[in-house]
Amino acid sequence: MSARLIDGHALAARLRAEIGERAARLAEQGHRPGLAVVLVGEDPASAVYVRNKVRACQEHGLHSVLEKYDATLSEAALLARIEALNADPDVHGILVQMPLPRHIDAHKVIAAIATHKDVDGFSVQSAGELASGLPGLRPCTPYGCMKLIESTGVPLRGRHAVVVGRSNTVGKPMALLLLQANATVTICHSATPDLGHFTRDADVVVAAVGRRNVVTADMVKRGAVIIDVGMNRNDEGKLCGDVDFAAVREALGPEGWLTPVPGGVGPMTVTMLLENTVQAALAQTADRR
Ligand code: GUN
Predict the structure, then answer these.
(1) I need a labelling partner for 280 at 20 to 30 A (CA). Which of 63, 70, 202, 215 fits?
(2) Is the CB of 120 inside a 6 Å radius of any atom of ligand 1?
(3) How does pLDDT run across 126-165, given as a tens digit for each residue?
(4) Among 120, 203, 242, 244, which one carries the catalytic annotation?
(5) Domains of the chain by range and CATH?
């Protein structure tokens, strides 16, 4: 018997229905939640991501603004646009799609976004709030991973969670969210000499490296929960994660849980962006409702 799959599409659909209801209630009160998405340049993958984000807003009753700029846009001009969006009362969330062209300093751009509109949760202020245990907007992918883990019913308190990867966008905030949920957290990365030593002891593994087969069947404990954030291509060009899916699913046994790729973490990231936009709208309009 192999591990149960955590269905990201089904969970995303449930959460999105509820987000849509909250957005509709806010709209009735004259505060339709609004997201501004800023895309600079012609990166084809970014264009797809941005389209999906705008479409998700439209499908769930959120207002969305897509601002597309040529790759030659100056840093000063982008910063001026962000200032305008910060001041726009119809925009509750601002997302600047990464990567930006090389002549633009992404740190400076992220820092320019008002913290209460930072729906990506990428700013130093947002990261500091998370690290300090203060309320604030959480980065969408790790926030979605937490919802996937919660959906299994496996409690995190006192459990050993291993995060593989230490990026600012996934690994580090993931570890902090797990810590906030009272897990005992280990962060492993490219300089960890024996990854399996840690993952074999883990009740929960979040793999966020961006390389195939980082987690193999000999590296997991029976009954563990494995969340695969990876988005890679196999030799046949098919989408795959960081986890050796079929073999790990067997090794986990019937008590274990595993997210598929695609259909696990992917659908949750945009869902949590909608969630953050509604949360931002609620916070920004609290005194006017
Ligand atoms: N590029 C790839 N993923 C993301 C994301 O989640 N947010 C932003 N702003 N850019 C990205």
Answers:
(1) 70
(2) yes
(3) 999 999 999 999 999 999 999 999 999 999 999 999 999 9
(4) 120
(5) 30-115 (3.40.50.10860), 140-266 (3.40.50.720)
- Name the residue among 282, 284, 279 with its Cα closest to residue 136: 279
The pair of three-digit structure tokens given for residue 239, joined into one six-digit string: 């989408």
Tokens of 139: 């980065």
- Ligand 1, atom 1, residue with closest C-alpha: 98
Q: Summarize pLDDT for 40-95 with one digit per residue, the tens.
A: 999 999 999 999 999 999 999 999 999 999 999 999 999 999 999 999 999 999 99
Give the β-pairing of 239-240 and 34-40: unpaired
Alpha-carbon gap, residue 167 to 119, rounded angstroms = 18
29/286 Cα distance (integer angstroms): 11
Looking from the CA of 273 toward its CB, the CA atoms found within 13 Å total 29
3-state secondary structure of 211: coil
Residue nearest to atom 9 of ligand 1 (CA): 97
Residue with tokens 């992220």: 110
Residue that has been written with the tokens 């969670």 in this structure: 161
Greatest Cα pair distance in the chain: 58
Query: Could you give the C-alpha distances from 73 to 43, 68, 77, 101, 109, in angstroms and in order?
Result: 14, 10, 7, 9, 13
Instruction: Report the SS3 class of residue 190.
Output: coil
What is this structure's pTM?
0.98
Tokens of 126: 């947002």
